[in-house]
């Protein structure tokens, strides 16, 4: 009898996995691709994820703008390889420059990216790119590859557990790098598909290259560390621009004869909220003020803080103490506390919390232990304006004695917000103005009462250093609001 080596057995088992997994034809390319996710699963996943996106990120409150983006998207999707999907397009209430797609036909653009666009054709380029991810089933394909890789890891773990035990975690972490080149290929394919869709729908193709210039400008202006083009999932904007220019040239002169739609687009984004919306909460030093929910809270001085849609979080400089403020789904504070202390492993300390700012409050200190460490903290649930707020602070067991007074003081700072200036805080908004003479961006900022610096105005209007605004031109200016 022939005996197979362990590597040979592993190879056969993985080959068996390949044979028993599904392959499908890519709707956009006509080529066969690995696919373990069915069409119905893809739609269901997208629907569930869309609910989470709406809850966690929020949809921008402008029905007219939502309809405008949806109309463009649905029209382009109707000319794609998957017109029967229930396509959904949303503008997300997020100042970050971003756009993304979920399996099943869910496309999102942020108000942040809209503020940096110049015309409708640029919007069509971004939407077309995201439609391309869906029509080519990139998300479902990546999930399929991940499932197959996990299957290979599990096979190795079964056949040689002692060999894979110490490498399994590392292999899982490296999985994204294994498929990184497929991610970059997917991005290029989405660029190609997006170009096809926008040209088919009658748009000028050149604005697609302008979008890559915009992304490059924003990346440089952010002054943050960026992954080099060869390792980033998205190819570098400059390489994407050069590649798209070549593709557009291959389409012939007619590709640049389509509509651009600058005027209608600028009309639609008039009044768009720009930057952080203070009505959703903002910081004044260590103080967090939320005009919409009318509360205030103060973190310890020097902590790093962040306002997320679902929570406000602070962490100390040593990164071993955390304070979180969230809203919980509970009928009252006492039931919320009982639910929090209910799970096995959480030990209540019987140090009950008195009322905070005169509001109904239930709270206690707690300890959570495992074999290697101990976490100590304090939690309070406060009833305020028909909501139950959870105030949570915790640190390591050995640090609790020194940190608890600071943490307790921060939790006790929660209370109603009554400062009229804070309650009436309004966001900055875009205004579209026609300049009556040529001028520098500095003069433009002064003349039209801008509430952002000239550099930001140059960025959102695509002005090069030293470039002057043209007489009679329409430009974006940011006005009003307060700067958190």
Write up what this structure looks like:
The chain is of the alpha+beta class. Helices cover 43% and strands 20% of the residues. Strand 4 and strand 5 form a beta hairpin. Helix 5 packs across helix 10 (207-222), helix 9 (180-200) crosses helix 11 (237-251) and helix 10 packs antiparallel against helix 11 (237-251). It is globular. The relative contact order is 0.08.
Descriptive terms for the model:
484 residues; alpha+beta; Protein Transport Mog1p, Chain A; 3 domains; 4-stranded antiparallel sheet; globular; disordered N terminus
Q: Give the termini separation.
A: 76 Å
How many domains make up the 3D coordinates?
Answer: 3
Largest sheet, spatial ordering of strands: 10-11-12-16-15-14-13
Task: Estimate the mean pLDDT confidence.
Answer: 84
Structural class: alpha+beta
Shape: globular
Q: Regions with pLDDT < 50 over 5+ consecutive residues?
A: 1-6, 8-21, 151-182, 224-232
Portion in helices: 40-55%
**Largest sheet report:** 7 strands, antiparallel
Strand content: 15-25%
- Counting DSSP H or I runs of 4 or more residues, the number of helices is 17
Tally of strands: 19
How much is the radius of gyration in Å?
27 Å
